[in-house]
Amino acid sequence: MRTSTILAILGAASCAVAIRCTQGLTYCGTSLVKKGNYTKDMQNALQREGRVSSSHNMLDSLYLCTADEDFLIWRNTCRRGACQDNGVDRDDVCVGQGEQPEDQDMDQEEQEEEDQEQGMEQSRTDCLL
């Protein structure tokens, strides 16, 4: 699925009645989507840290809820599907094999798309020769 499609789905899903995050707790992106309209806040948190707002980075990251309930601070990005919702009044965490390296901005799907596009460009060049 393309990132824009996923973000559109996130936006539609988050139009439900919002349940505010609790100041000082850490939430997975998936938990924030369930709570309400946090898509833009997650994008802003990632952008402040110089991270790409891909679906993986948005949904599999941990965010700290601050005193301004609409202001999130990006903490970390877990491996795909490894961000665990620990329930009410408990911090969410990364589980499994550890965390994704901070310098990895593209998720696997985006990297594959980029590789495929580069391969197509090379094929076009080879045909012209």
TrEMBL record:
What is the name attached to this protein's record? Answer: Uncharacterized protein
Signal sequence span per UniProt? 1-18
Compositional bias ranges of the Acidic residues kind? 100-118
Source organism per UniProt? Aspergillus homomorphus (strain CBS 101889)
Where is the region Disordered?
83-129
* Keyword entries, A-Z: Signal
